[in-house]
Amino acid sequence: MIGSVSATEPAPTAPGPSTQDVDRSDTAYRDWLKEAVRKVRAENGRSADTHLLSFPLPEEWGIDLYLKDESTHPTGSLKHRLARSLFLYALCNGWIRPGRPVIEASSGSTAVSEAYFAKLIGVPFIAVMPRTTSREKTRLIEFQGGTCHLVDDPRTVYEVSARLAADSGGHFMDQFTYAERATDWRGNNNIAMSVYEQLCRERYPVPAWIVVTAGTGGTSATFARYIRYMQYDTRVCVPDPENSCFFDGWTRGDPGATSTAGSRIEGIGRPRMEPSFVPGAIDRMMKVPDAASVAAVRALDRVLGRKAGGSTGTGLWSSLKIVAEMLSRGERGSVVTLLCDPGDRYLDKYYSDAWLAEQGLDITPYAHTLEHFLATGEWR
Predict the structure, then answer these.
(1) What's the confidence (pLDDT) of residue 40?
(2) How many CB atoms lie within 10 A of CB 48?
(3) Is 127 helix (H, G, I), strand (E, B) or coil?
(4) If you average pLDDT over residues 11-34, what whole number do you get?
(5) pLDDT at 138 over 50
């Protein structure tokens, strides 16, 4: 018919793929998770800040040296902050499950702190550590309810930890990978923010140098990132002990650097470049002889009446060397380093002349350097 329009029915179409839907919601787990996170955050709320100790130097030098005393945390070390951050990170990622163990590769102090948090939320904890770890650290881990798995070769702690986690269905915390990302480096009362707040009324509130040793590298990364974020002029120095690869890897720009022996300074120094070590954020590194670290930690005991671990000595030696450089150039300012953990964990090591002789360490020349410097301001 003229003027008519022919209407054609649309051809039927084949049905498309159906929506796939998998719901793994677990109400019981979420209830457990909320309570676990609450307990860890509540522990943080109960914790006071740590002291910033003044190391006595002559007033006329115009240089102030401070030690951030991390030994006063509930588990006695700097690693308490790290362990709290790692547990929150792993809990919120869904990695820690009720009844399943948390496993960590550690030289001791992190394991003490992680055992504490594992007990707090009610999960088992296994520390994989070198057999040379101090007996006192082993005792402290067991006191917190943890189990110690000792290995002869320190380089195997990673693979042994991963295997134990796979066999048990647990979680390998892996502080050496996650330390730098678990901590909120922009603030949130991290250690860097705490230091700057405590210095705000001092005569040099923005330090010329922060000196921080590296185990995971997470603390140096936190300081360095916070300093850049806040636009401070502070520089970061990382001292490294013998038998550690960080210094060599940093100076050569070699992320594959390794060391064939374990560090004698517990808590710092690693046989490989750890993922949490951030070389580009660091301004300066020093390679410190182990004997110098021990001499410095014994000098701290004489000057402040405070025993501390060997890592504190490594940082203190480097800090005093920097103070000497500033003094020789007529510079004024402040330097901050860390008192990482208490010396009662190492009475059979760094405070034992028998252990020094066994290790072939002669601290005499380094002790003379420190004594001469503190008396005269001259670094020999």
Answers:
(1) 96
(2) 7
(3) strand
(4) 90
(5) yes
Residue 204 near residue 333 (C-beta atoms within 8 A):
yes
Pairing of strands 52-55, 63-69: antiparallel
β-partners of residue 275 are none
Res. 187 pLDDT band, cuts 50 70 90: low
- pLDDT of 3 over the 70 cut: no
pLDDT of residue 10: 66
**CB contact set of 40 (below 8 Å; sequence gap of 6+):** 84, 87, 88, 91, 117, 120, 121
Q: Are strands 333-339 and 284-288 parallel, antiparallel or unpaired?
A: unpaired
Q: What is the DSSP annotation of 149-190?
A: EEESSGGGHHHHHHHHHHHHT-EE--HHHHHHHHS-TT-TT-
Inform me whether the pLDDT recorded for 1 exceeds 50.
no
Assigned token pair, 277:
């070590």
Cβ(348)–Cβ(134) below 8 Å: yes
Structural contact between residues 118 and 124, judged by C-beta atoms closer than 8 angstroms: yes
SS3 200: coil
Q: Which two tokens stand for residue 272?
A: 């490989």
